[in-house]
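name: query_chain
kind: protein
chains: 1
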Amino acid sequence: MRARVGQAPCPKHHLSFVRRNHTLRAITVAGALVNFATAGTVAMLPLMLVQELHWSEGQLGLFLGASGTGGLLGAFFGERLSRFLGAGRSVLVIGLVIAPVSFVVPLAGRAVPGPVAALAWALVIFKVGFDSVVLMSFRQHVTPSRLLGRVNGTLRVIFSGALTLGAAVAAFIGDLSGPRAATWVACAALALVWVPILYSPMRRQTLGGS
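structure:
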């Protein structure tokens, strides 16, 4: 049903559009999973590294700073890698190669030295930065211009909710079983972020000349 003049379209219409579009649906699930997992991991890492391993503030800062560098590099090289591998294929391939590295992070200070865990976390956030560039391009590519702003707003609400839920779930698990157990759960979710892409047509799609 067409909206009346001066009346904003119903938000349910935008959510329905996202749900029916296979590419947008995969982007939404993958993005929500990333936000859920990264929020939980970031909430628990300082507790695990400082309380359990007794790292100094400087060591913690270097660990978290490595992830910032990884995210910056991922965003910087996102367009180049998507052109080289093909846009949709690049999201799947980089997810398959890098996302499982997140399992290294909860092993920090035990089976894995701190610098190695920091490198693993930087690689994971490299993928997050890469996805933020390429998946945004996909959103713009498959969404009609008249709906783009409202679809972006709908996804922003979903992604913000995933951040809140991820931190809350991590806090709940951390209170029951400790921050390392909560980090394991969050990193397990991060390791699966490629699954929605695998089961979507995006893995075969391109953007323009990519």
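note: Helices lie at 11-20, 22-52, 57-85, 87-98, 114-142, 145-177, 179-190, 195-198.
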